[in-house]
Design brief:
- The protein is of the alpha+beta class.
- It folds into three domains: about 25 residues; about 70 residues; about 130 residues, Beta-Lactamase, CATH 3.30.450.40.
- About 50% of the residues lie in helices and about 10% in strands.
- It contains seven helices and five strands.
- The chain has a five-stranded mixed β-sheet.
- Helix 3 runs antiparallel to helix 4 and helix 3 packs parallel to helix 7.
- The longest helix is centred in the N-terminal third of the chain and has 45 residues.
Length: about 230
């Protein structure tokens, strides 16, 4: 008995919907989003006649779903990029507030790590050059020529996912680091060649092909700020 009631209810609901659509022939025009939900009739007849219109509509519906998915992904990515950009700007502003050369090392290796959500940040400079590394206790010393071994002459930044990182750079934190970003610090009359290294346990933090504009900005900001203090 309950099955008949349900069947009767469906018939009544269908007749109400049919009557409503007949009274409002422009309903679908004013509600185009329903096209992605409704199933169009199949006009195929036997094996010889294929309803291409129905096939095209179904393809358009699928493309619309893919477009909506990609649009959502693009929005999420844009939001993440804006968040990262704001964090980088905050980090650089913090660097500009340094009151002495010996503050720079702490800001970059400690404060930046918190602001940027990076597990390990290292400042590395080569030794055995006419110009000595800056006198900062946070600096990691590298043997002469190591910068070009990690970063070729043309490479300014190296991004590696699931990296076999160097103990020379990350020291005891090496087992923690799964991805890394190495930024070259060019040699000047104030400093030997060096590397600003970021290491993360997050496998998605750094990867080849990732945009490097913000990392370049961080590297140049650190280098220029350090040089200003070294000039004094």
């Amino acid at each position: 008995m309950s099955g008949k009631k349900e069947q009767l209810k469906n018939i009544i609901d269908a007749s109400v919907a049919r009557k409503f659509l007949m009274q409002n022939p422009d309903f679908l025009i004013n509600n185009p989003d329903l096209y992605s939900i409704l199933t169009p009739p199949d006009r195929s007849e036997g094996d010889r006649i294929v309803d291409f219109q129905n096939i095209m509509i179904e393809k358009i519906k699928k493309n619309l779903k893919d477009l909506q998915h990609n649009q959502g992904h693009l929005i999420d990515t844009s939001r993440n990029n804006l968040t990262t950009q704001a964090q980088v700007h905050e980090a650089v502003l913090c660097l500009l507030e340094t009151e002495a050369l010996n503050h720079i090392g702490h800001i970059v290796t400690q404060d930046w790590a918190d602001m940027l959500h990076i597990d390990v940040i290292r400042i590395c400079f080569e030794v055995d050059h006419p110009i000595h590394p800056p006198a900062l206790k946070e600096i990691t010393l590298l043997q002469k020529g190591r910068v070009n071994e990690y970063l070729n002459q043309e490479d300014i930044i190296l991004l590696r996912g699931e990296a076999n990182v160097s103990e020379d750079i990350f020291g005891p934190a090496k087992p923690l680091v799964k991805t890394e970003a190495l930024i070259k610090i060019p040699k000047t009359k104030y400093n030997p060649p060096g590397i600003l290294a970021f290491g993360s346990r997050d496998l998605d933090m750094f990867y080849p092909g990732q945009g490097t504009e913000l990392l370049r900005f961080l590297g140049k900001s650190y280098h220029k700020c350090m040089i200003q203090w070294l000039k004094q």
